[in-house]
Design a protein that fits this description.
Two copies of one chain form a homodimer. The first copy, chain A, is α/β, with parallel strands linked by helices and 228 residues long. Helix content of chain A is 34%, strand content 28%. Chain A contains seven helices and ten strands. In chain A, strands 6-7-8-3-9-10 form a six-stranded mixed β-sheet, sandwiched between helices. In chain A, strands 2-1-4-5 form a four-stranded antiparallel β-sheet, covered by helices on one side. In chain A, a hairpin with a 2-residue loop joins strand 1 and strand 2. At the A-B interface, helix 5 and helix 6 of A face helix 5 and helix 6 of B. The structure holds adenosine-5'-triphosphate (ATP) (2 copies) and magnesium ion (2 copies). One magnesium ion (MG) binds next to helix 1 of chain A.
Chain lengths: 228, 228
């Protein structure tokens, strides 16, 4: 599903350049559950933003479903693919502050052309599955940190994406609530979908089939949990 | 240092009320290291916002350093106490987006009347101690999640507060970087300061002298790590 060769991303910051990714090779077969770990600042979110088509690499090759993303100049085509195929859980949640939890989760369904009734039914179902049945009308400012994180997860899952990209989806959750979210991911994976999850939690990584360890913008090693 | 009796906080949300804290009794002696744990939504941040004088309780008694906070109507007095005595690490970092990391960390020192030279020296020292010597000129949007969290920690520590309140200070950090921050807290505590740290990570709580477990806005139990 994903094929990456020598992928690099350099941020320019005034006169300084920050090489966040220095050349990554990676293949993610369809249906795999891959975890990404690494120290703070090692390039995990940068890689996720490229995989989620929200940012363009500085250089390198990136094929998604056989489509050469690095050659695609057309932003409309990029956002079409993104809206239909990919669910993204942001590290900083990225919820719209003036919309309720329900409206935030409905948003991706608007892009998909769902009817208002269908949207509301599917979004409230998604919020129920992440354990927030009685927070639908709260705006993000009226939610706890972990509740915002779960709204972000619900929004990513509501379109039933074939590729779920989750950037540290359990950092603000206690272990029981975090486990509930991980079980949701397991069931999405069980249906044949592809998951890429960034985490600092080894318990999350233990559920994956492979773990990509990043360090200083490079692949340090690829690990199969249980085999070291 | 902190004495709380029957402290309650109810949010009103349209016609609905949300009882986030339903009556908390707590004593925190000067120099104690207290951890607060509990499920997502159990009222931890709400309690921290009251302890940090950033919000007013709905009812109950709160004495800080012998001063009756619940009776203090004067907001100027509240922010004076806050600026001088308390360092606060926010769960969502709360950094100013248009200021650099250095300027963000300098901010509390402006309230304390430090000179520009002194501010810059102390703020860059604080950023060095959290492991960000070469990110001083980055704005929050140019930092990773864990780097933002560390800037928030540096800003809370730069005034050398006698009371540090940290709301989930390591959620976005890998274990090695997280340990470095916890060692900073240990050294602050070693100097006789009082620490209250909210966490979902049992390893963080293991460093505290007591752990307050919250559930649904009430104290479920008080634990002494190592004694169950
Ligand atoms: N402004 C608000 N209006 C209405 N309800 C609110 C508001 N702020 C918080 N709440 C609710 O109060 C409860 C407690 O929130 P709080 O942020 O204290 O939880 P928490 O223990 O810090 O959770 P987390 O671990 O997820 O950060 C939550 O159920 C939340 O939805
Ligand atoms: N817009 C930007 N401009 C300059 N540097 C940036 C920018 N965004 C990120 N960086 C830098 O690129 C590096 C990688 O950042 P990234 O967010 O990918 O790290 P990360 O592995 O996700 O870290 P964390 O675990 O803390 O979230 C960091 O050192 C960061 O300071
Ligand atoms: Mg990140
Ligand atoms: Mg909280």
């Amino acid at each position: 599903l994903i094929r990456i060769r020598s992928l690099a991303k350099t941020y320019s910051q005034g006169s300084i350049t920050v090489p966040a990714l220095r050349g990554i090779d990676l293949d993610v077969p369809r249906g795999e559950y891959l975890a990404i770990m690494g120290p703070s600042g090692s390039g995990k979110s940068t890689l996720m933003n490229l995989l989620g088509l929200m940012d363009k690499p500085t250089s390198g090759e990136f094929l998604l479903n056989g489509i050469d993303i690095s050659a695609l100049a057309d932003d409309d085509e990029l956002s079409r693919i993104r809206g239909v195929e990919i669910g993204f859980v942001f590290q900083n949640f990225n919820l719209l502050a003036r919309q309720t939890a329900l409206e935030n989760v409905e948003l991706p369904l608007i892009y998909q052309g769902a009817s208002a009734q269908d949207r509301s039914a599917r979004a409230s179902e998604a919020l129920r599955t992440v354990g927030l049945p009685d927070r639908m009308d709260h705006r993000p400012g009226e939610l706890s940190g972990g509740q915002k994180q779960r709204v972000a997860v619900a929004r990513a899952l509501v379109t039933k994406p074939s590729l779920l990209l989750a950037d540290e989806p359990t950092g603000n959750l206690d272990s029981r609530t975090g486990t509930e979210i991980l079980e949701l991911f397991d069931s999405l994976h069980g249906k044949g979908n592809t998951l890429v999850v960034v985490t600092h939690d080894a318990r999350v990584a233990a559920r994956a089939q492979r773990v990509l360890h990043l360090k200083d913008g490079l692949v340090e090693r690829l690990e199969i949990p249980g085999q070291g």
